[in-house]
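Need tokens for this chain, all 183 residues.
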Amino acid sequence: MKKLHLNTFLFLVFCGSSVLVSAQPYLLQPARVFDGQDMHEGWAVLVEGNRITAAGPLASLSVPSEAEEIQLPGHTLMPGMIEGHSHLLLYPYNRADWNDQVLKESNELRAIRGAVHAEKNLMAGFTTVRELGSEGAGYADVALKQAIEQGIIPGPRLIVSGRAIVTTGSYGPKGFKPDFEVP
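Here are the structure tokens for all 183 residues:
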């Protein structure tokens, strides 16, 4: 498991995170590269800025002389994964009911939870996350995306929705927030 986390971390440091972009080109030399379809022994990956500019057999790559070579013997590099349906501002319902989360927790607390979940997703290998609605936390998902893009916190690329939209009567909180005054 530690080896998996190290592989993911190294790949994300050089390729996936907008927080860790460097002008220094890097040549990553793992034991193998998985391109999403096939495993390739002896391939290398060239990273310039926040982009993978080349991947293939080392002899076929045009490597800048200033590139720092990083040897990763025994390791496999793979593309970052994409999470297609996420609610970073929530946590599993077996820990707290959805109503309790959206009615009783402050938007600020939920935004901090979202920042922690974003980093955990990145470190698990997800370089893009589609966040499908803040579930009552206003535009906290938009702020989370901005904080990641500005390098304030680590996290994956976020595709955000803002406020969740649902059909009338389909679902929603049962009750009111404690600070909401009912006339």
